[in-house]
Amino acid sequence: MAASTRVTDHGGGVWSIQVPIPDNPLGHTLVYVVDTDRGPVLIDAGWDDPASWDTLTEGLTACGTSVGELYGVLVTHHHPDHHGLSGRAREASGAWVAMHAADLAIVRRTRETRPGRWFTYMTAKLTAAGAPEEHVAPLRTSEPRTLPGLSPALPDREIVPGELLDLPGRRLRAIWTPGHTPGHVCLHLEESHPAQLPGHGRLFSGDHLLPEISPHIGLYEDPDDATVTDPLGDYLDSLERVGRLAAAEILPAHQYAFTHALSRVGELLTHHEQRLAGLLSLLSDPLTLWQLAERTEWNRPWADIPHGSRNIAVSEVEAHLRRLVKLGRAEAVPGTDPVTYVAV
Ligand SMILES: [Zn+2]
Ligand SMILES: [Zn+2]
To answer: N or C: which end of the chain has fewer CB within 10 A?
Structure first.
C-alpha cells in the first residue's frame, strides 16, 4: 500500500498514519502526528517491526515532514503496539519520549525482570484459578524469548495528568484514564474543532475508547506486588471522566475517528454492567475463576478459544469478579483450593 493511502489529514495540524501490526487481527495502530512550533510530536509510535517502521517514516514524509524532525513522542500506554517504535523514533531524531509514571514503572520492571519469572508467576496464578493441568503444562516449558516487547525503551519524561504538555503553540492536556493499563492516558487537544463540530476539542483516546472494540481490562499484574487492584472500577470511572469532557471528536489508536463519544461511553458502561450481572447469576453456585471463564459467553465457544486468548479471558473475568467482591456482591468461599467464589 502506498504511504499516502495510509495517511489521513484530520485538519488543524493533525494527521494519522496507519502503522501495521504484523499478524494481528487489529490490523494497525493509528499513530497521530501533531504539528508544533518545535516540530511534529507523535502520539504513540506503532509496533516495532521493519515494515511498520518504513510505514511510519514514509507516512511522516507524506505529512510534509520527516522522522528526523520529530520533537517528541507521547505514549498513551506501554503496550508494544503503541510504545514499540518510540525508542527507534528517538534514536532517529533526538525527540523525548513521555509516558505516565504508572506505565513507566511497568516498562522499567519489564526491562529488569527475567522472562522466566513471568512464566513462574502465570503458572502459579492459573493453577490457583483452577486451570486444568493440560492448560498450565505448556507454560512450564515455554521458551521465554517468544514474549513480545521484552526490552522496551525507557521513556525520558513523565506525562503528568492535568498538566498542559510540552507542545509549543498547542494546547494538549493529559487525562489519566487507568483501566486498560494502570498508566493509560487520553490526550485532550483543547482547541476548537477544525470543522467547527460541536463539543470541546478533540480527544486522542489511545485504547481507552474505541468505536467498536471493548478494550481488554488488564489486572496490572506485578509478580512482586500482591496488592489487589480494581482495574474495572478504574476503567468505569475513567470512562465517565472522559464522557464529561464532551469532546467534539475522538481520535482513537485503532479502527477510525468518531464523534458520538457519549453514546459510545454509554454502550461500554452497559456492556460491563451486563457482564457483571451475568457473572453474578453464574455465581449462585460456587465456581473457580476458570469455571466462570468457561461458562461466560464469548465471541466463540470456549472449546474454540486458543490457549493465549483463554488466559486473557480468565483475566477479564477476574477483573469483573474483583469488582463484584469490592462491591460486596460476591465473596471467596473460605478454605477452598483452588478458591471458589459465590454470590452474596
Ligand atoms: Zn493496549
Ligand atoms: Zn492498542
So the answer is: N
Sign, Cα dihedral of 8, 95, 245, 190:
negative
The 10s digit of each residue's pLDDT in 199-223 is: 999 999 999 999 999 999 978 888 8
Number of structural domains the chain divides into: 1
- Look at the block and give the residue holding cell 523525548: 96
Q: What pLDDT shows up at residue 118?
A: 81
- The three cell numbers of residue 138 are 505448556
Using CA atoms in the order 130, 281, 294, 222, what is the torsion angle rounded to 10 degrees?
-50
Taking a 5 Å cut-off on Cβ, the residues next to ion ligand 2 are 81, 207
- Ligand nearest the Cα atom of residue 82: 2
Q: Which residues surround ligand 1, an ion (CB under 5 A)?
A: 79, 207
Quick one: pLDDT at residue 121? 87
Structural domain for 153, as ranges: 3-108+148-267
Distance 221 CA to ligand 2 centre (A): 18
- What's the one-letter identity of residue 284? S
Confidence of residue 19 (pLDDT cuts 50, 70, 90): very high
Say which CATH number the domain at 234 has. Answer: 3.60.15.10
The mean pLDDT value for 43-61 works out to 97
Expressed in angstroms and rounded, the spacing between residue 79 Cα and the centre of ligand 2 is: 7
